[in-house]
Design goal:
alpha+beta, 8-stranded mixed β-sheet, 4-stranded antiparallel β-sheet, 12 helices, binds iron/sulfur cluster
Length: 340
C-alpha cells in the first residue's frame, strides 16, 4: 500500500476510532514520566515525547503474569488457564523498542514456543513513531537501527509538523488503515523528503558508537580485569535489567494463601541479583558482582550474537541513564575497543 498522510488535528479522532474496536495502548504522561498504558480514549495520549523510561515490553512480557490457577482438593487439580489478551494496537513505540520486540521473538518464538508471549504478540498491531529528537543517552545507530525506520512495526508514523507520514509495512498495518479509511489521505510524494528532514536531528544528536571488533574482543575477555573494575561500584539494584527492553529473565512462583486454591505466576528476575543463579544445595556459580556484571555485558554483546546472530541491545540508553552509579554500556563498549 502506498504511503498515507494523517492530518495532525485528526490523530486523536483516529485513535478514538481505533480504541472502539481494539484495546489501545499508547504513551501517556504520569507525573513527569512518559509511559505506555491502555487507554479508553485518546484524550490523555501524548504525541510529542522523547522515549520513556519504561519500554512497552510489559505488554508482551509482563512484569508479573498469572499462568494458571489450581485447586489441590480437586482430584484433577482443576488447572484453569488464564484468558488471553484482546486484539490490541500499540501506538507510538519508538524504533529501538520495536527492534527489541524482534529480539524477544528470537527467545520466545524459538524451538520452545512461549504461548503466553505469542498470544500477546499475535494480537498486537504495532504502530511505530519515528524519532524527531532523541535523548542524550541514545545510540541505536550502533546496532543498525535508525530513528526513521522500524523493522517489525506494522505502520510507521513520522511527525511532519502539521501532519503525519504513514508508511504501511505489513498486512496488519493495511488492515488498520482500511478500518479507519476516512482519516488517511494519499501522500502526494513529498512525504519521504519531509521525513528525512524531520528526523535528521535525532540521527545527528545520538551518540555515535561503532561496535566493530567488539564481539571478537569479548570472545577472549572472560578473565579480563575490566569486570572486576567495573563491578566495584555496582550496588546490585537490578535497575539496568528492569528498564531494559531486551532483558527477558523470569522466575516462576506458586502462590496460595494456605488454602486449596492457588495460582502460578511468573515475574521478571535479574541476573544482577545474588540469588538469581543460586542452586539447590547452595551452590552459587556467580558468587560476586564481578561474575554478574560480566554476565550482563557478555550476554548482550557476545552470547546473544552467538545464539541468535544479533546483539542483545538496541542502544535505547535507558540503563546508562537510570543506573545510580553510572555504569554505562556505551562506555564499556568503548573500553573493550581500547583493550590491546
Ligand atoms: S542494555 Fe541498556 S542500552 Fe541496551 S537495550 Fe538494554 S537498557 Fe537499552
Ligand atoms: S543499575 Fe547499575 S548499580 Fe544497579 S545493578 Fe545495574 S549496573 Fe549495578
Amino acid at each position: 500500500m502506498a504511503n498515507k498522510i494523517v492530518k495532525k488535528d485528526q490523530i486523536k479522532n483516529l485513535l478514538n476510532k481505533v480504541a472502539q474496536s481494539s484495546q489501545l495502548i499508547a504513551p501517556i504522561k504520569s507525573d513527569s514520566i512518559t509511559t505506555f498504558r491502555p487507554v479508553s480514549s485518546a484524550e490523555a495520549v501524548v504525541l510529542d515525547y522523547q522515549n520513556g523510561v519504561i519500554p512497552p515490553k510489559d505488554f508482551f512480557f509482563p512484569q508479573s503474569e498469572k499462568m494458571f490457577t489450581y485447586n489441590i482438593n480437586d482430584p484433577t487439580w482443576d488447572i484453569r488457564e488464564v484468558e488471553g489478551v484482546p486484539e490490541r494496537v500499540l501506538f507510538g513505540a519508538r524504533p529501538c523498542d520495536v527492534k527489541s520486540i524482534l529480539l524477544l521473538d528470537k527467545v520466545f518464538d524459538a524451538e520452545f514456543r512461549d504461548n503466553y508471549y505469542l498470544d500477546k504478540r499475535d494480537k498486537t498491531t504495532i504502530v511505530a513513531m519515528s524519532c524527531n529528537d532523541c535523548r542524550h543517552t541514545c545510540f541505536c545507530g550502533a546496532f543498525g537501527i535508525s530513528p526513521d525506520t522500524a523493522e517489525g512495526a506494522d505502520l510507521l508514523f513520522t511527525d511532519l509538523g502539521d501532519k503525519y507520514l504513514v508508511e504501511v509495512l505489513t498486512e496488519k498495518g493495511e488492515k488498520l488503515v482500511n478500518s479507519a479509511k476516512e482519516f488517511f489521505a494519499d501522500d502526494d510524494g513529498s512525504g519521504a523528503g519531509a521525513k528525512a528532514k524531520a528526523t535528521e536531528m535525532a540521527k545527528a544528536k545520538q551518540m555515535q558508537i561503532s561496535l566493530e571488533g567488539v564481539k571478537e574482543k569479548l570472545d577472549n575477555m572472560w578473565e579480563h580485569p575490566i569486570w572486576d573494575n567495573e563491578s566495584l561500584r555496582c550496588i546490585g539494584c537490578g535497575t539496568c535489567t528492569y528498564v531494559c527492553p531486551t532483558c527477558h529473565c523470569f522466575d516462576i512462583v506458586d502462590y496460595n494463601d494456605q488454602s486449596a486454591e492457588g495460582y502460578r505466576y511468573r515475574c521478571w528476575d535479574s541476573c544482577q541479583f545474588s540469588n538469581f543463579t543460586r542452586a539447590a544445595g547452595g551452590h552459587q556459580p556467580r558468587p560476586s558482582k564481578k561474575e554478574r556484571i560480566r554476565q550482563r555485558f557478555l550476554h548482550k554483546l557476545r552470547y546473544f550474537v552467538d545464539r541468535y546472530g544479533d546483539f542483545g541491545c538496541v542502544g535505547c540508553g535507558r540503563c546508562l541513564e537510570k543506573c545510580p552509579v553510572n555504569l554505562d554500556i556505551a562506555q564499556i563498549i568503548t573500553k573493550v575497543k581500547e583493550v590491546g
